[in-house]
Amino acid sequence: MTPVVILCLSTTPSWSSRLIPAPIARDDGLRWIPRINGEFSVPVVSTHTTGDLFVPLKMQQIYHDRAEANGSADYLVQRAIRSTGHCDFTDQEKIDSFAAMHAWVDEGAVPAGDAVSDPEQVADPEFGCRFTDPAAPDLQGIPPCP
């Protein structure tokens, strides 16, 4: 079983742009964007910043709904991080997510996550603080968590 930690999905082609696309490659102008349809059978830890305006938190909710519809929800743990940037995680937040994934795969310990699809939890003033690095930088003098 190959675990997956999603810290950031990039749509920028790199070395892969030199590869010849397979016959099933997307031809809708989105060939570098993977289909995120919620079909997987390996553990996935997905982290997302709450203030990301490039890829809003709503996308995590859609991902959760698709995973649930495809029977993959038991393999999905989602974490919200208080930050305003796209994939703007501290090193510690990355380390924590990766360590949680390893514990899940190696010891069977399903990591804690946030209920990103629960409107009451998302509306809570503390939402996103559980996995936010307490040492995360203040944004214009405002700490990420109260």
- How are the strands of the largest sheet arranged? 1-2-3
Q: Give the oligomer, counting copies of the same chain as homo and different chains as hetero.
A: single chain
Please identify the structural class as seen in this structure. Answer: alpha/beta
Order of helices and strands: EEHEHH
What about the largest sheet?
A: 3 strands, parallel
Helix content: 10-25%
Number of strands: 3
Mean pLDDT, to the nearest integer, reads: 84
- Unreliable stretches (pLDDT < 50, length at least 5) are 9-17
Count, helices: 3
Rg, rounded, reads: 16 Å
CA-based shape: globular
Strand content: 5-15%
Termini, distance in Å?
39 Å
Itemize the secondary structure elements and their pairings:
Layout: E1 4-6, E2 44-49, H1 58-69, E3 76-81, H2 91-107, H3 119-123
Parallel strand pairs: 1-2, 2-3
Description:
This protein is α/β, with parallel strands linked by helices and about 150 residues long. It has a domain at about 1-10 and about 40-130. The chain has helices at about 60-70, 90-105, 120-125, and strands at about 5, 45-50, 75-80. A three-stranded parallel β-sheet has the order 1-2-3, sandwiched between helices. The longest helix has 17 residues, at about 90-105. Residues about 10-15 have low confidence and may be disordered.
